[in-house]
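**User:** My hope is that you can spare some time for a protein that puzzles me. As I understand it, each token names a local backbone shape. I would be glad if you read both lines and explained how they fit together. The protein I mean follows directly.
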Amino acid sequence: MINRNKMTGLGSKEAELIATVGRSGRRVFTVSEAAKLLETSNIDVSKIVHRLVQKRKIQRIEKAKYLLIPPEAWKTGEY
């Protein structure tokens, strides 16, 4: 389970996306899947995802498909 308190340096929407996707048990997700989980638009999720890729909290696998990097690996970079 992902602890939202350990997600320093993230905005509330970014932390919500990571926590919600993590709770769903997914490591790989699409923008559409995340939008459904968050009950928001694909455009809004795309913006959040873009920021998370820049912060290296998720990794782009292919167009609109991403890998959730576990928060415990953020400091070490190993996952």
